[in-house]
């Protein structure tokens, strides 16, 4: 390899060169000038990679979306030509990292890439099969963006166990999603009812619980509903399964006709809509159900109030805020804050 062409012969892993830090490194590696070094160190410090640059590069390799990682995630047979090209790229990257570090620490790659050779390729094959590939590694929820495609978003803050009440409704959601990931008969689902009953949180929590089975959730804004056919078409070519969540639909909306074997739809609405095989009502809790949820949350927040006092507070709170699980959790949070501040609750 020519001394001035480090990382210039990549064929499978060319995507890592779009990373500004790796691009600056390649420029510096090929031209050891003061200006190139300064530009590289500038990016290095911005990316907080000055104590383990090799680890940073390895993470970029692992998360790169390319023909090899995608084929592995799909469980496809890897042709000897593709594997040979991928190993050649790993070897070239490893070779580029073999020089005396000046002003930073080269460090070591993570265990997923113990070496820059066929051993690493074999390790990554199994990794991609179990974890997915590219942007889908380490992220289970995304937001559709017309300009940026799928943007990772923070996962649901609650697990199914955190969502009190509505056990039958949660079980229906889980059952349908389990059928979906196992490629059994399943249905697009509509969750209708009052705001604050936990419709979207239940769907998101159930989907996150199945992330290890290559299920990813994609949020589609109501104003982007016309993009649904295009979104489904693009998702249909990816080697994972996707639940597309559309929130707060109203009775005048019609869902565009579209389908793909690896895409399931879920929508929330305040009214029943046509076009969904599974309709799950999330109705406001009765006073008795609301109190039961409050008692469960009191245990979770370790509130040691007498039952009668807790129920009296809950009764006054529900008069102002309604009988939804969201209202019950807000009450528990308020009572917890009062206890921590040593103040009596005022409701």
Model description:
The chain contains 12 helices and 7 strands. It is an alpha/beta fold and 347 residues long. The protein has 3 domains: 121 residues, no CATH class; 123 residues, Rossmann fold; 55 residues. The model has no long low-confidence stretch (mean pLDDT 92).
SSE blueprint and pairings:
Layout: H1 20-30, H2 34-46, H3 53-63, H4 67-74, H5 80-96, H6 118-131, E1 141-145, E2 149-152, H7 167-181, E3 189-193, H8 199-209, E4 215-220, H9 228-235, E5 241-249, E6 263-269, E7 278-282, H10 287-300, H11 307-321, H12 325-341
Helix pairs in contact: 1-2, 4-6, 7-8, 10-11, 10-12
Adjacency order of strands in the biggest sheet: 2-1-4-5-6-3-7
Q: Quote the average pLDDT.
A: 92
- What's the gyration radius in Å? 26 Å
CATH superfamily of the largest domain: P-loop containing nucleotide triphosphate hydrolases
- For the secondary structure, the number of strands is 7
Number of helices: 12
Q: What is the helix content?
A: 40-55%
Identify the overall geometry: globular
**pLDDT under 50 segments (min length 5)?**
none
Which range does the strand content fall in? 5-15%
Oligomer: single chain
N to C succession of SSEs: HHHHHHEEHEHEHEEEHHH
Biggest sheet overview: 7 strands, mixed
Assign the CATH class of the largest domain.
Answer: Alpha Beta
CATH topology group of the largest domain: Rossmann fold
